[in-house]
UniProtKB/TrEMBL annotation:
Coiled-coil regions, chain positions: none
Limits of the RNA polymerase sigma factor 70 region 4 type domain: 143-178
Organism: Nocardioides nanhaiensis
InterPro entries: RNA_pol_sigma-70-like (IPR039425), RNA_pol_sigma-70_dom (IPR014284), RNA_pol_sigma70_r2 (IPR007627), RNA_pol_sigma70_r4_t2 (IPR013249), RNA_pol_sigma_r2 (IPR013325), RNA_pol_sigma_r3/r4-like (IPR013324), WH-like_DNA-bd_sf (IPR036388)
Record's protein name: RNA polymerase sigma factor
Family to which this protein belongs: Belongs to the sigma-70 factor family. ECF subfamily.
Record's keyword terms, sorted: DNA-binding, Sigma factor, Transcription, Transcription regulation
Domain (RNA polymerase sigma-70 region): residue spans on this chain: 34-99
Length: 188
């Protein structure tokens, strides 16, 4: 551990996560306490409303707690965590979209304007919707794109996490970008 109170190095976090994966409850509690702010940021990058991001973050933390045993240390724990949190945000988006369709209100629908709600601008509604479309036919393209373009992991981390060759990761990201790009265009 480091000398600064509350500060954990990436190597320390990996070791703590491996202890948690082996069944150490105290290590799991320490991991969850340490990663909670990071999980909130990851989910917040993908979801427009703080309440939605918080719902996704809570689900992601629950998944970390229940699936920590699947972390084998082949990649950094934070890489594994990014995948769990990103997938949780996408699942939350799908759930919110389904609930909205099941319980329509009298309020006017809020529509995402891709000119102002882009990956750069901070709202991910347009991107999430495009990922849903692409994922319906090509689910293998979605996770690499999210990990690279939203969560900003490097190609090697993604290859390790997904257990596929580096060339496959690059190819999938390229194909995903090509598939998503026309879905994000705004008609003038």
């Amino acid at each position: 551990m480091t000398d600064a109170p509350g500060e954990i190095t990436p190597d320390d976090l990996d070791a703590l996560a491996l202890r948690a994966a082996a069944g150490d409850r105290d290590a799991l509690e320490a991991v969850l306490a340490h990663v909670q702010p990071r999980v909130r940021r990851i989910c917040g990058r993908m979801l427009l409303h703080p309440e939605d991001a918080e719902e996704a973050a809570q689900e992601a933390l629950l998944l970390v707690a229940t699936r920590i045993g699947s972390f084998a240390g082949r990649s950094r724990f934070t890489t594994w965590l990014h995948a769990v949190a990103s997938n949780s945000a996408r699942t939350t988006y799908r759930s919110l979209k389904r609930r909205s369709a099941e319980h329509p209100t009298d309020e006017l629908p809020v529509r995402a304007d891709p000119r102002t709600t882009s990956v750069i601008a901070g709202s991910r509604l347009d991107l999430l919707e495009a990922l849903e479309v692409v994922g319906a036919d090509h689910p293998e393209l979605v996770e690499p794109l999210v990990l690279r373009d939203v969560q900003q992991l490097d190609y090697n981390e993604i290859a390790t996490l997904l257990e596929v060759p580096l060339g496959t990761v690059k190819s999938r990201i390229h194909a995903a970008r090509n598939a998503v790009r026309p879905l994000l265009r705004v008609a003038d």
